[in-house]
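Lab notebook, bench 4. We co-purified these components, and the gel suggests they stay together. Before we commit to crystallization screens, I want a quick structural picture of the whole thing.
Request: model the full complex, all chains together.
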Amino acid sequence: MNQQFLIDTLMQSGAPQLPARADIVALTALTRDDARAGMNRFLTALHEADICRHDRANLTDCGERSVAYLPDGARAVVFHASGALQYVSGLAPFQAPYERLEESLGLVRQLEQAAQRLDLNAWVGERGSLAFERLWQTKARGSDREQRLSNPLLVRATGAWRHAVGGIPVLGAAAVALRLAGDGAVDALSLRIRQSEAEVLDTVPVIAEELAARQLAERLASVLGKSKDRLPGDVVQSATMRFGYLDLGKRKAQRVLAPAFVAQVELQHRLERQAYVLAVAATERPYLELPLFGVEAPAVRSRGLHPECRDGAS
Amino acid sequence: MARFGVEAIRYFNHARAAGVSTAGDLTYTFNRSNGFDKALRSSGHARAFYWSNTDAWETDIRDVDRGGSDRQWVDDVDLFWIETHGGSEPDGRARLLYDIARTEWRTYSDRWQLGEDFNSEWVMAYSCDTVNLDAVTGLWNIFARLHIYCGAWGSMYDGVTTDECGEDVGDNLTDGDTVSSAWHDGVSDWWVDNHPVTVCVGDAATWNGGNIRWDLCALNRDHLWGHGSVGPDLAPAQQACLLWQWTEG
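Here is the predicted assembly.
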């Protein structure tokens, strides 16, 4: 792989103007009661938008989540560590599909109108803002034995919004994902916006974009490892790099929002396509742990030379 | 309740050293696979096996009639989750890479035949490109009473922001989502360009002369055992159509 090509591609995709310094923003430490209070607020908002018939529900504690089972098969979930919220309607997956394929602009308009009804901006917090980022469409199709294809069916439209704090996007899963059925009903809503009073703990220099791109390329090289065959220069299909705060996921507690560079890289060589998300701190001193590798395999006995053994079952 | 099996591969150093592939290691394989395993086990489902790295073999999914041992592994559980590098052929066959040749380095789906013993209902593969959207019917042979195959029609991202996908799928299943919805929603963070697709077979009433009765198909009806209804097995002679649902951004 041509590492310099990757670095150049990442840099070209980066933000046109990076801030020289960025704030380290404190996040509110959540108690379980805080998370549950967030759930009550969520249910009230859903009720006021006529999405949910009740604004109260009994919560079932499921370890790192609490789940509220709602009328008509719907449910709402809150994640204790992050306060992330989810609502899923009781609609069957193919109930109320769209009558025809729709233009993207029309779907985005529908989603934005639904977002307004839900008053999603009420969740953005101090110095926060929300911007529509991407439309997703779920479609379906079939074929019979004679290879006759049905017309494609648009089943659901999902809009994704990006949260920003002080103008810096919070990267990671979409801050808001809103899924609509064909009749305009809200089929699902997820909110992943961490609570913050926007207290600035520190304002620190941002590392040079080239340094970040180089670190990301080195991370990729270490994932790719050594190979009998050299990777050709054109193995990189696409590579983008974004600067922003990074949300570590809804099941993880997080003390601060700290800037990072996050790359998405797709590779294709011979039979395998590969797609990686890589992140490095955008500050000299790291405020978040961003390990290249996750956890290891569970401790089960090796299969050894006995193909029929079931030691992995424990 | 369901019996499930997991296979997950993080290191591909043997495949690379053998010149079989240049594929890199996967970084958050076990966050996803362990998360899936944890979500199901905490709801009372039974793990039948969890094979990792070089303990995951292509013969585990290959049909007994084709020299494999699926009857003891993938075809012996209700739900099978695998994470590795994947791909598909122009004729629609899915392809998965292993890090050991037991007995081959790759599996091709024309050698799978799942559900023959009425056990295997659902297969989930967190791998890139395991469904060719231009030739989905190339997967038909795998449905020997298998209900749903969950895969990808393009990239599936590995990294720090997709580490919860396995647990999300597991939680969705045990919260009562359909299997198809659990996959589409669980592997989508609505940021990275993941490409979930779910494929099932339907009978003549479902095909309905091409005016598909989507309400009757497994994508609409199947839930994990213990968390909702499950549609009937369809023997190959009853299968009139192949149906698929995909998410694109």
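The helical segments of chain B are 13-17, 29-42, 165-175, 179-186, 204-207, 218-221. Worth comparing against the SEC data before the next meeting. The first strand of chain B starts at residue 3 and ends at 8.
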